[in-house]
Amino acid sequence: MDKTSEEASSKGKKRQRDQQPTDPQTNQPHHQIFSLEDNLSFTDTLVALRMMRAQFPRIDKVSIQPFILRSQLYSSVKDRTQVDRELESLRREKVVRIFKLNTGQDDHAIMFLDDYLNQMENVVKRLEEKEGDQVFKWFRTHVIDSKLEPSIEHQELYTLLSLGGMVKDGHISLLINAGLLTRQLIDPNMYWFAIPNIGSVLKGLSQGRKEVLSFLNRRRYKEMMLASMEKKCLRFSPLDMRFHLRDLIGSGHLKTVQTSTGLLVRVSKD
Amino acid sequence: MWKEIGDRERGILRPKSFTTRIKSNRIRTLQISNHKDIVSPHRASINSLQVDLTEGRYLLSGAADASAAVYDVQRATDYEGGGLIAKHKCLFVVDKQHEHGHKYAISSAIWYPVDTGLFITGSHDHHINVWDTNTTQVVMNFKMPGKVYRTAMSSLATTHMLIAAGTEDVQVRLCDIASGAFSHTLSGHRDGVMTVEWSTSSEWVLVTGGCDGAIRFWDIRRAGCFLVLDQSHSQLGRRPTIPEHSATNKALTSKSLSSGQNLNAKPRAQQRKLANGNGTKQSPVGRMPAKGSLRQRLHPGMLSSLDRATAHYGAVTGLKATEDGMYLLSAGSDSRLRLWDVESGCNTLVNFETVRLQAGKPIQLATSQDSALVFVPCMTAVKAFDVWSGNTSQTFRGHYEYVNSCWFSSQEQELYTGGNDKQILVWSPPRMKDLLRIGITGVIDICS
Fold it and tell me: Residue A99's beta-bridge partner residues?
């Protein structure tokens, strides 16, 4: 099914010229041909993760490796318990790493381990000239390898890092400044693992969510066809509409209804 | 249903399976009752509901205007609509006007588990009152250091009559009705305790959920808790799988088995974590030397207070143990509902599709008789989830405002829910009698 032919049949030739610049998938041509309706459901968690990683939007300002939100998985795989369990076994096998995000209730980002290590390399390269760069090596070999949970206690961090060499408090501040760790607000002794350089993307995530929800809420019947929604461009978020729609459908703020003309997206009342 | 009766008659179906089949069919057709109505005298939100455990006949409700009322749910006080709708008015109400009544909201009202002669109410005015039902007088009064959020008494207890009280204070207090004094306090939580439940398998085990997000299991005969549930300890399935790499893990598993459930020593807790990881790489760190000096200063039973594991990312607002005592359901203000395996202390990772749960108040969950369904108040609706798969089985929409508590009566297969809209709604399966009567009158109309 060709996307351009679909557009030509429904809207006429003129639409094509408007759509080309907004389409961000210039490096994955064979994924362009499926519309959002077709790739809204997958059968297996790992397949879903790989496909969503391939469909991650390319952001020009920040170089960031693809990550997937947990709510996106819930929208694509039917059985949520199966998703949770498969994610847990993938995490234990060190295929993926899970991070808790600070954008709202219980948001988790899933990143493949290789992508995370690449991201860390990119960030550490820039800080290489300082003398504390030993810490990053120790962090990578001792902490990331053995601690698979999304959070770590201060004492444990200290002991794991000391396996590499003499650790000072300044070293931990270096890790926090690089964005690899963040302090927990409720407990001063615990740290969350974090994805470095992700700040602007997270801001875009929460603003994009608000924008999508307010756009639908402003409409008279608080609903819109999925096909026309995916063509909209978001002003405040570098992530594309498909990313946000999957996230909002999975977290329950939006729901999809099958109609005779296609899928309809509606704001769900609790 | 007629087929089941026929099978039972012929002896193909056993009596127990016959009853469970009829009961589960009825539970699947629960809807807002068209023949039963409870008239609530309360003028504020209803915080707590409980049907007595001995007869299953009297419903006790506690509300935010300091009133508690008892209703008979089996016999109606009067009938309306030509005898079709049964109205259940309250048998009595105790409120602020009562000389020893509560001054502020009642957060929890429970029956004495042995008989309906006594009931216990806990209120935001820092008092727990024990009332005599027949004379509606306060028999005993306990003063707490903070607002009382939940009170609980064990239905299995034969040797003690302790009321466990969860308050704003970090300590859980046990009040003894027999002596009228506090028997002891349980410390370990780092913030107020919002929910308290006794275990359904042991009369000595108490489960508490705190505003710090921790769920602790206490054996009241000892100091300190013996288990703190950690949401990152998970198992993939109803019961933990048998470890495959038994050769490498043999030393670890034998050590953890010998220490049993006692997580009161940090190094053992570490090893237990590794054993539960099911074959993950052994961490080279097994001891934490810096903590040694700290450990010496604390009583070994109190080491559990150092364990800062959380079960939820917010406060724990509801707890419910299954009938067999093997699983525990917990609801948190992070809008998640989790199912825990009590024996291994792990999260079974069943995902219940809850979008939002009430955060500020404790909520009361209910389970159906064989614990296959759990009824959870989700904002203005009550949702029934299948416990093992997490799928939403039914949604009950009827309240105008947030629902605070629900109670399932397995004898009648009826669900009672109370919320902020001051109403107690009854959800019951449709009556066969009504369907037949409507059928007959319909025929008469056609003839005449």
Answer: A109
Render pLDDT for B330-358 as a digit per residue (tens, 0 to 9). 999 988 999 999 999 999 999 998 888 99
Q: Alpha-carbon distance A97 to A107, whole Å?
A: 14
Q: Which DSSP category does A251 fall into?
A: H
Q: How many helices and strands (H and E) does chain B possess?
A: 6, 31
Instruction: Chain B: give the shortest CA distance to residue A72, in Å.
Output: 14
How far is residue B383's CA from residue B62's CA, in Å, rounded to a whole number?
22
Give the pLDDT confidence of A115-134 residue by residue, as tens digits.
999 988 888 887 766 655 67
Sort residue A197 into left (φ over 0), alpha (ψ -120 to 50) or beta: left
Q: Which residues of B touch A146 (CB under 8 A)?
A: 281, 283-285
Residue with tokens 């902490």, as numbered in its chain: A143
d(CA B310, CA A189): 14
DSSP annotation string for A119-184: HHHHHHHHTTTSGGGHHHHHIIIIIIHH--SSEEEHHHHHHHHHTTS---HHHHHHHHHHTSEEE-
- Distance to chain A for B409, nearest Cα, Å: 26
Joined tokens for residue B137: 């007088």
Q: Taking Cα atoms as reference points, which of B349, B329, B316, B227 lies closest to residue A98?
A: B349
A20 neighbors A13 (Cβ within 8 angstroms): no
DSSP secondary structure, B231-293, as one string? TT-B-SSSSPPPPS-HHHHHHHHHHHHHHTT---SHHHHHHHHHHHTSSPPPPS----GGGHH
Q: How far apart are CA A15 and CA B281, in angstroms?
A: 56
Q: What's the pTM?
A: 0.82
